[in-house]
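hi! just following up on the protien thing from before. the input was this:
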Amino acid sequence: MKVVSSTYYELIVAKAFYEKHSGEHELLHRDALLELSSLSLPEHLESNKRARLYRSKKYRLTLSRTSLSLLIHYLMEKQDAGGQVVLRLMNRWLDIKIVPGAPTDEAGGVDGEALMDHEGVDTRERLLLGPLPMDPDMMEDVRTQLREEDLRNGDNVNSENSLSAVWSKVKREPAEDSPSRDSIPLPT
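and the predicted 3d structure came back as:
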């Protein structure tokens, strides 16, 4: 992501890096990869929640003391071949948690990443799970049908026993936790 905020040449290098290595992570992180692949301008880094999350927090990695020691020893041996750079990157971007014995199945990651859904939207937003409000056109059609039924039955449309009067007692305003009809994409 730092590369995106730099020059055009570095952007080309970043795209090449992404295309070379993204296949290795496709199975487990497809949504994150798709979202991050669309970042190409510095403004995108500020507007994208996942990018802001990755840039502000360290990646949590669980290792045994032996594994960490072997990794650091290897990187020190390969200091001239990029080992020093990897060590600096580890210090800057990794939060290494040392556990006794072999690491458990505890997942690594960035704190808060699990709260992101498929579109990278924070799922802590309030969910509206109440009943969908009635469609105004459908309500008018029902009212018209009930009036016609009242007339066929010989009932006065405004009498207490008419179907129209019963319909007027039906609660039609949306509940507090009802979504608006405009916020739900319906099939066409």
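The radius of gyration is 29 Å.
The helical segments are 8-21, 26-37, 42-47, 49-56, 65-77, 83-93, 136-153, 163-168.
cheers
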